[in-house]
Amino acid sequence: MKKTTLIVLGILLIAPLSFAGENGEILFKGMGCMSCHHPETTSKINPSLADIAHAYQGKQQQLIGYLNGMEDAIVKPEKAGMMKRHVEKTKALTDQERSALAEFILRY
Ligand code: HEC
Description:
Elements: H1 3-30, H2 49-55, H3 60-67, H4 84-91, H5 95-105
Helix pairs in contact: 1-5, 3-5
């Protein structure tokens, strides 16, 4: 096999792995989630990323399900209405994008 072919194959194999964390951050910022969810600061209404990550520790699949509109809110269920519009946006993403978002959130 030619060296260039090997390099191309290598990139194809590595790309989906590095996609997750970085693209999660790009998506989170690009979709305006950061305007309400700050890394550490919890407002009266909005949970921080750390709050969300804490609630979903070890529950990545459940978080992905929530972002796909299939699981109920567990952080502040009484304020779940505020997220409705945003869950509609995350429902429209691909599975890979939702996983990337969840991975990004769970880093906190
Ligand atoms: C207008 C402010 C606002 C924006 C913008 C926003 N959120 Fe939220 N989010 C909230 C509030 C308030 C809660 C608490 C209610 C709740 O827990 O459902 C919340 C809760 C959450 C939770 C925890 C859900 C749970 O189980 O309780 C996740 C995950 C989340 N947001 C992700 C996102 C993502 C991803 C985006 C961007 C697409 C986003 N949010 C945009 C206000 C916002």
